[in-house]
Write a structure and sequence with these properties.
This protein has five helices and no strands. It is mostly helical. The protein is elongated, with a radius of gyration of 21 Å. The mean pLDDT is 75.
Amino acid sequence: MIRFLFLDLLAAVAGFAVFLCSVFVEGILEAFGSSQDSYARAKPVANLINQYLFDPAARALGYHVGGEHHAVPAHIVMILLISLGLIVFSLWLRRRLDVENPSRAQHLVEVFLDALQGLMQGSSARSTGRICR
């Protein structure tokens, strides 16, 4: 059971790291002007979600929303959609994991994570005895 909880925690950390990396990459691409095509493709989806979800909620709270301006910017809507997708995927994956009868893929992931954990513990300051004070 501890091994299963450890894998669940690492999956959550890995999902959050992927989320942060996607936000970072999106920011870099936007800064260099390379994401205009993807932004143009994502804008109708963001407008639809704003129109039926966020704009009515903002009006109910007393905020004025109209014209081209929406309650939530398009890039934030897309980040929320990607986060929701990652959460749904991790919940689906969690149901497929089994402690008593792991699949080949689960065994391979556990071997990789054990090797990664061993590498991190081997290079930490506590295991080498080199602690800076």
